[in-house]
């Protein structure tokens, strides 16, 4: 896999390196740019790769390191799904009511990943296992199955909203 770096102000691709290993990247920046130039870099946006953070601070000591929004959303999305599956597995019992909840969580998993603002609060629709209901009411009912699921959903939605509104996530 390659490593590319871009000037975010102009959108210009500055260079594409053939490899994204630490040694290649460090060598590239040290041979092309002086430490004085490295000290002038103000921000760096990167993915969640932990190895980048360690050497980026070394190469660009004054830069603020920002994790790419896509990767933040991807991470919280996975966490939301992980919690939903954990709750589902707890509901995998011989109890008929638990089985019904399990099937609902399994079937309507996409509803949890939708932005809360995109859920329908006014239009009644037919949903198997729920009959005719509001989409938001279905999500609300399923969140009532487990407090951990409800809290994870609350945090997930707060992060999505912050990313959407371009809030600072600190």
Widest sheet: strand ordering: 1-2
Measured between the Cα atoms of the first and last residue, the distance is 31 Å
- How many structural domains does the protein architecture include? 2
What is the overall silhouette?
elongated
Strand tally is: 6
Our count of helices gives 8
Arithmetic mean of pLDDT: 90
The string of secondary-structure elements, in order, is EEHHEHEHHHEEHH
Fraction of residues in β-strands: 15-25%
Biggest β-sheet: count, sense, barrel? 2 strands, antiparallel
Q: Strand pairing plus helix content: what structural class?
A: alpha+beta
The share of residues in helices is 40-55%
Query: Taking Cα atoms only, what radius of gyration do you get, to the nearest Å?
Result: 22 Å
* pLDDT < 50 runs, ≥5 residues: none
Give the SSE layout.
Blueprint: E1 3-7, E2 12-17, H1 22-32, H2 35-40, E3 43-46, H3 50-59, E4 64-67, H4 69-90, H5 96-107, H6 109-113, E5 124-127, E6 131-134, H7 135-143, H8 147-164
Parallel strand pairs: 3-4
Antiparallel strand pairs: 1-2, 5-6
Helix pairs in contact: 1-3, 4-5, 4-8
Characteristics:
alpha+beta, single chain, 16% strand, two-stranded antiparallel ribbon, 170 residues, 6 strands, elongated
Description:
- The protein starts with a strand and ends in a 6-residue tail after the last helix.
- The protein folds into 2 domains: 3-67, no CATH class; 70-164.
- The model has no long low-confidence stretch (mean pLDDT 90).
- Strands 1-2 form a two-stranded antiparallel ribbon. Strands 3-4 form a two-stranded parallel ribbon. A two-stranded antiparallel ribbon has the order 5-6.
- The longest helix is centred in the middle third of the chain and has 22 residues, at 69-90.
- By secondary structure, the chain is α+β, with helices and mostly antiparallel strands.
- The protein is built from 8 helices and 6 strands.
- The protein is elongated.
């Amino acid at each position: 896999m390659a490593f590319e770096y871009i000037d975010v102000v102009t959108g210009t691709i500055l260079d594409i390196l053939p490899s994204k290993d630490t040694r290649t990247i460090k060598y590239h920046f040290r041979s092309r740019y002086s430490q004085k130039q490295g000290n002038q870099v103000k921000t760096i946006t990167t993915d969640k790769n932990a190895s980048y953070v360690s050497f980026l601070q070394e190469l660009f000591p004054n830069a603020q390191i920002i994790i790419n929004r896509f990767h933040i959303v991807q991470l919280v999305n996975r966490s939301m799904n992980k919690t939903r599956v954990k709750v589902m597995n707890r509901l995998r019992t011989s109890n008929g009511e638990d089985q019904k909840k399990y099937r609902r969580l399994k079937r309507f998993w996409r509803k949890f990943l939708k932005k809360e603002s995109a859920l329908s609060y006014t239009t009644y629709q037919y949903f198997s296992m729920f009959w005719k209901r509001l989409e938001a009411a279905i999500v609300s009912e399923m969140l009532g199955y487990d407090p951990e699921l409800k809290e994870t959903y609350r945090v997930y939605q707060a992060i999505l909203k912050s990313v959407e509104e371009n809030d600072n996530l600190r």
